[in-house]
Amino acid sequence: MKAAIRYFALTVGALLLLGIVLLPAQTRGAGKNMRMYDPATETSIKGTVENVTQVNRGRMTGTHLTVNAGGNTTEVVLGPAGFIADRGFTFQKGDAVDVVGSKVTMAGASYFIAREITTNGKTLTLRDKNGRAEWAGGPAGRRAPVK
Fold first, then answer.
1. Total structural domains within the chain
2. Are 64 and 14 in the same domain?
3. Residue 143 within any structural domain of the chain
4. Could you report how far apart the first and last alpha carbons of the chain are, in Å?
5. In terms of domains, do 109 and 72 share one?
6. Does the N-terminal or the C-terminal CB of the chain have fewer CB atoms within 10 Å?
7. Alpha-carbon distance 147 to 123, whole Å?
8. What's the whole-model pTM score?
């Protein structure tokens, strides 16, 4: 009986500890301190897609582009591959793109986090002007418009 009570107490304690650790990731504004997008560094680049990469991060697959803009290559982070495909967008080597986004450095590497990308006369909005991801949903279940 004592062993069962001890096991129950340890299990409840572990679950409570796990809940305390994971709760901040589920609350409103949790991404505020983890957000990669910095509106203060927003700029735009025009170039040609050299490479399309699907990057796995946990259960999500994200789309990254290597863009050659005037002889400089830039790693452009778009967003979840499913979100992009759902809006009828695909990218391939040789595509001309115009990207509005934020330059950031993470773990010593430079990235360009896309807010909007235009190709073939269509614009895909990935984030709002503050960098909030359109796929993140929200009270109205936001959906990015295709222009």
1. 2
2. no
3. no
4. 66
5. yes
6. N
7. 5
8. 0.69
